[in-house]
Amino acid sequence: MKFMKSALVIAALTLSALSQSISISEPAAGTRVCAGCTINVEVDKDNSQAPSKEVGIVIAMRTCNNGGCVDPLTTSNLGKVLYNGPYNPHYGEGPTHNNGLHQDFPVEVPTSFITGKAELSVFHLSLVGDSQILTFEIKSVMVDVA
Asked: Could you say which residues form the signal peptide (predicted)?
């Protein structure tokens, strides 16, 4: 009986954490960006019934020219940090935001960035649920640096 209660609690916490997921809606995969230019990174957050508190995000970019990019969780390397700070998503209006939670981040691609394939990653950290369980995730999109 104790095992069943523990399993239910773990399942509920897992579902709660998964419901707090983010996504990168801008730039889209395959977008061409230029070194030295400012790009907009739009980070969307799924709506959830579970309470959550945003801790922050890191937006980073790394080159993938030599054999592709390896999962940042296995290398602990996000690349060049473009933004590190608070994440305060708000409800948007209009057809591009579908009235969902999001925040836009204008970031500059370094002028020294190597041209070619690059991975833009967002590392998201939040506290989920009434017991404020620490959760994190990394979402990525491939872009072309010109």
From this structure: 1-19
